[in-house]
Q: What sequence folds into this?
């Protein structure tokens, strides 16, 4: 108790195993560990060049002892390291972007299939008007037009004018471009004209009768990284036509946690659909940095259409998302979920 940091303090020999030799441990440490030294960085949130703990969050101390201050940061550093290794050339970067895009589509599709269970059809990597689209998910008389974006956000600049331009450019390249893609398909449903689904060679795969869906179509943009407030209130930067509605822009992790919690609580797909309808009304009035606060508020009944109609401005608070922490302690439903037996037995403690 006098030295809480000892929990994350170790020697290289402490973590060797049958598959992780000492040589490998030392090699990993050479890429993720740093020594304490004078530094002239100004902002501790700066990455490159900046706070060395962002790229190397393990500190090498005296006598071969290593210290980790925040385990979560180590995970982020490993992810950044692997991303850098896989982006050293234009060729490997192109392969990485393509692979990430396909994996993101697979994750989104798996979540939707698990949530809707049956009575659905879908198309992945399809073409409309010679333009590639990601996912079209059809359930009963509802259509979900989904674009998955693995775009990496750049570190914000300190100069406010330049910082805004960078954020705006990143937003346009991710959510803005995703909306352009979903709108292309959505317009077919608006005009109630046949939606021709083709493959990359222009061969006809399917024709969707859009008249069956009336106004039951939703545009959803799923990204890996969140733009926070400007994503949660798209009226700030996303330009849409006067009579159009905003899409739902959501981070992959938030989408997965929300839908898995709905499954755990036995919620019907119409409950999710009503959320999407309600969510459209929040743009232009919501102040929120975390989409799960909105999801949690809807689940708990703290956010309703009646409340939204009466509020010119709606501010969410962190405790609205507590419902997901409680569900995590009982079992979220992740594939190969860790500590699931402990959670089911009630012996798991979440700090």
A:
């Amino acid at each position: 108790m006098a030295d809480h940091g000892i929990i994350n303090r170790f020697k290289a020999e402490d973590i060797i195993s049958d598959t992780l030799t000492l040589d490998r441990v030392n090699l990993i440490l050479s890429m993720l560990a740093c020594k304490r030294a004078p530094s002239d960085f100004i902002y501790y949130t700066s990455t490159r060049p900046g706070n060395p703990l962002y790229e190397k969050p393990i500190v090498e101390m005296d006598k071969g002892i290593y210290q980790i201050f925040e385990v979560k940061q180590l995970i982020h550093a490993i992810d950044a390291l692997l991303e850098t290794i896989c982006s050293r050339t234009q060729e490997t970067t192109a392969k990485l972007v393509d692979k990430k895009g396909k994996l993101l589509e697979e994750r989104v599709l798996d979540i939707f299939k698990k949530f809707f269970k049956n009575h659905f059809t879908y198309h992945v990597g399809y073409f409309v008007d010679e333009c590639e689209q990601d996912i079209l998910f059809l359930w009963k008389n509802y259509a979900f037009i989904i674009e998955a974006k693995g775009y990496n956000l750049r570190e914000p600049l300190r100069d406010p004018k330049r910082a805004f331009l960078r954020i705006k450019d990143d937003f346009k390249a991710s959510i803005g471009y995703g909306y352009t893609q979903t709108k292309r398909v959505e317009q077919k449903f608006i005009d109630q004209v046949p939606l021709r689904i083709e493959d990359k060679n222009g061969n006809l795969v399917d024709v969707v009768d859009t008249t069956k869906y009336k106004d039951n179509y939703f545009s959803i943009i799923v990204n890996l990284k969140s733009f926070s407030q400007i994503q949660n209130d798209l009226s700030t930067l996303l330009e849409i036509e006067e009579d159009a509605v905003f899409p739902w822009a959501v981070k992959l992790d938030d989408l997965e946690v929300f839908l898995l919690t709905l499954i755990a609580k036995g919620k019907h797909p119409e409950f999710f659909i009503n959320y999407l309808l309600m969510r459209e009304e929040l743009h232009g009035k919501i102040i929120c940095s975390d989409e799960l606060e909105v999801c949690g508020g809807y689940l708990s009944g703290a956010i309703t259409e009646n409340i939204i109609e009466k509020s010119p401005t709606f501010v969410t608070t962190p405790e609205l998302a507590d419902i997901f922490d409680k569900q995590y302690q009982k079992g979220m439903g992740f594939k190969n979920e860790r500590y699931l037996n402990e959670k089911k037995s009630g012996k798991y403690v979440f700090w």
Observations:
- The two ends are 16 Å apart (CA to CA).
- The mean pLDDT is 92.
- DSSP finds eleven helices and 15 strands in the chain.
- The chain has two domains: 4-85, 90-345.
